[in-house]
Amino acid sequence: MTDQLDYQVTVEELSALMKRTAGVHVDPVTLRQQADDGFDTFGLDSLGLLGIVAELEKRYGLGLPEQAERCKTPADFLALVNGALKTGV
Amino acid sequence: MSGPQRARRPAQDAGERPAQDARRSQARDGDRRAVVTGLGVVSPHGLGAEAHWKAVADGASSLGPVTREGCEHLPLKVAGEVRGFDAAETVEGRYLVQTDRFTHFALTATEMALEDARFGRADVESPYSVGVVTAAGSGGGEFGQRELQNLWGQGSRYVGPYQSIAWFYAASTGQISIRNDFKGPCGVVAADEAGGLDALAHAALAVRGGTDTVVCGATEAPLAPYSIVCQLGYPELSGAGEPDRAYRPFTEAACGFAPAEGGAVLLVEEERAALERGADVRATIAGHAATFTGPSHWAESREGLARAIRGALAEAGCRPEEVDVVFADALGVPEADRAEALALADAFGPHARRVPVTAPKTGTGRAYCAAPVLDVATAVLAMEHGLIPPTPHVFDVCHDLDLVTGRARPAEPRTALILGRGLMGSNAALVLRLGGTAPRTA
Question: In the CATH scheme, what is the code of domain B286-434?
Answer without folding.
Answer: 3.40.47.10
